[in-house]
């Protein structure tokens, strides 16, 4: 079907107020509708709360040193303390330590692993990606808890 015909049909739909039109030409068919047949889902409402900036009680004296603004408090990520080989997240997502909520974790602290053993799963966009050990050794540190979000290149495990 020619795009010009489709545009004319859309214009006709808008001009006449018809809510739906269906055209068949041979094996081709086209259905235009003003209203979606998919039920509408109400979007969740997000409420933002802003905190007022701290007020300055009195103007600073001309001879005083400039006052620096308080630095923003950033949430600190656990930093690996043990020396050894670091297993990093290859993507942004959510880390899961077991294949299912009722299953035991893939690995635990102090466990010896071989290259290729699954250490955890990182879920990204509804895809579950197994993170494997790239070398053999002992798990000396687990830096992310089950269900926590992870960033790209974030250290997940330390193997010694």
From TrEMBL:
InterPro entries: AcCoA_biotinCC, Biotin_BS, Biotin_Carboxyl_Carrier/Decarb, Biotin_lipoyl, Single_hybrid_motif. Residues 84-160 form the Lipoyl-binding domain. Residues 50-85 are annotated as: Disordered. CDD domains: biotinyl_domain. The keyword Lipid biosynthesis applies. Keywords: Biotin, Fatty acid biosynthesis, Fatty acid metabolism, Lipid biosynthesis, Lipid metabolism. GO terms for biological process: fatty acid biosynthetic process. GO terms for cellular component: acetyl-CoA carboxylase complex. Pathway: Lipid metabolism; fatty acid biosynthesis. Pfam families: Biotin_lipoyl. GO terms for molecular function: acetyl-CoA carboxylase activity. SUPFAM superfamilies: Single hybrid motif. This protein is a component of the acetyl coenzyme A carboxylase complex; first, biotin carboxylase catalyzes the carboxylation of the carrier protein and then the transcarboxylase transfers the carboxyl group to form malonyl-CoA. This is Biotin carboxyl carrier protein of acetyl-CoA carboxylase. It comes from Fluoribacter dumoffii.
């Amino acid at each position: 079907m020619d795009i010009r015909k489709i545009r004319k049909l859309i214009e006709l739909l808008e001009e006449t107020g018809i809510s739906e039109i269906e055209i068949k030409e041979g094996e081709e068919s086209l259905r235009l509708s003003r209203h979606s047949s998919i039920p509408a889902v109400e979007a969740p409402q997000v409420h933002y709360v802003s905190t007022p900036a701290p007020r300055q009680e009195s103007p600073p004296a001309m001879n005083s040193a400039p006052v620096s603004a308080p630095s923003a408090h950033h949430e600190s990520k656990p930093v690996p303390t043990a020396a050894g080989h670091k297993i990093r997240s290859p993507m942004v997502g959510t880390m899961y330590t077991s294949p299912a909520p009722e299953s035991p974790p893939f690995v635990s602290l102090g466990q010896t692993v071989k290259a290729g053993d699954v250490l955890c799963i990182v879920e990204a966009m509804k895809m579950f990606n197994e993170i494997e050990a790239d070398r053999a050794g002992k798990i000396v540190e687990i830096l992310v808890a089950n269900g926590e979000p992870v960033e790209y290149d974030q250290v997940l495990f330390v193997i010694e």
